[in-house]
Amino acid sequence: MAGRGVGHYHSHMLDVATHSAPRSPVDGRDGEAFEILPGDAAGGLVLLCDHASNHVPPEYGALGLPPSEFGRHIAYDIGAEALTRGLAARFGIPAALSRFSRLLIDPNRGLDDPTLIMKLSDGAVVPGNARIDAAERERRIARFYRPYDDAVLSLIEAGLATGRVPTILSVHSFTPIWRGTPRPWHAGVLWDADPRFARPLIDGLAADPAMVIGDNEPYLGALKGDTLYRHATRRGIAHALLEVRQDLIADPAGVAEWVERVAKVLVDLDLGTSPHGIEHFGSLTGPVA
Ligand SMILES: [Zn+2]
């Protein structure tokens, strides 16, 4: 049943849809900086996981940080990779995952963003980033940032080539306590100006009264140059960024629960049969360029 569109899952129309829907398989492939999970490019949804990995190649000497820092959210989004893999497998849709720590370079930032390479992250000074020169910055862009960005682009292009514009879901996680204050949300949906996917995703998740779902919490989704700005806002492609509290997806049972929770909402949105078209909503950050 691999390759059915999102929305066909558990549908009474499953057989009809499975036999009539066009198929356009994306092959799995990987490089040092990215992994593409195989799936159906015509499924109506592609998944991104910008902060999947805490990996730093040995020649970077752990950026001068103690090993304990690499178990924290500053190095990667705990649980986000497993949630992405679970959703991709669930629907047979493709996904792009990074294979390097955001401490090296953050793929979810524009190249002119001052936090592209963090010198300080949640109280931790990053010695290996303190004095890097322009050449080292360019090396990291070429070795990590660009190949991942190209992988994201290739997934979207594969979707567009099927004639069915893919909606983009970017999967992240956030730390339950920030600067000493517990965060109240179980999950949040971040978005900028395009409400097509974000609004119903928020409503769908919040339909469970046990869930506290943030609307542009714990962060504002409008960030010029971030992954969704570059690949979705600029191109008029419907999108949302899902942030799940990391302690809720820190083990396989939690991941399984959240795969089910998110999958149920995605099925209700019927992205497989009724995907969004190209439509430009602009950005709260200013003119889109
Ligand atoms: Zn993240």
Précis, in short:
The protein has 289 residues and is an alpha/beta fold.
Structure overview:
The chain has 7 helices and 14 strands. It is of the alpha/beta class. Helix 2 packs across helix 7 and helix 5 packs across helix 7. 46% of the residues are buried. The strands form 4 sheets. It has an 8-stranded mixed sheet, sandwiched between helices. The chain has a two-stranded antiparallel sheet with strand order 1-4. The site of zinc ion has 4 residues, from loops. InterPro entries: N-FG_amidohydro, UCP029730.
Give the helices and strands, then pairings.
Blueprint: H1 14-20, E1 25-26, E2 29-30, E3 34-37, E4 39-40, E5 45-49, H2 80-91, E6 95-98, E7 120-121, E8 124-125, H3 127-130, H4 134-161, E9 167-174, E10 177-178, E11 181-182, E12 187-190, H5 195-206, E13 213-215, H6 227-233, E14 239-245, H7 252-269
Helix pairs in contact: 2-7, 5-7
Bound molecules: zinc ion (ZN).
Residues 50-51, 77, 172 line the site of zinc ion (ZN).
Number of domains: 1
What is the CATH C level class, in words? Alpha Beta
Overall spatial form: globular
Helix-strand pattern = HEEEEEHEEEHHEEEEHEHEH
Biggest sheet architecture: 8 strands, mixed
Number of strands: 14
- Overall helicity: 25-40%
**Which structural category do the helix and sheet elements fall into?**
alpha/beta
CATH second-level architecture: 3-Layer(aba) Sandwich
CATH superfamily, by name, is: Zn-dependent exopeptidases
- What proportion of the residues form beta strands (DSSP E)? 15-25%
Cα-atom Rg, whole angstroms? Answer: 18 Å
In this entry the ligands are: zinc ion
Mean pLDDT, as a whole number? 92
- The number of distinct helices, counting runs of at least 4 residues, comes to 7
CATH fold topology = Aminopeptidase
- Which regions have little confidence, pLDDT < 50, spanning 5+ residues? 8-20
N-C termini distance? 40 Å
* Largest beta sheet: strand ordering: 2-3-6-5-9-14-12-13
InterPro entries: N-FG_amidohydro, UCP029730
Protein name: N-formylglutamate amidohydrolase
Organism: Kaistia dalseonensis
Pfam family, one: FGase
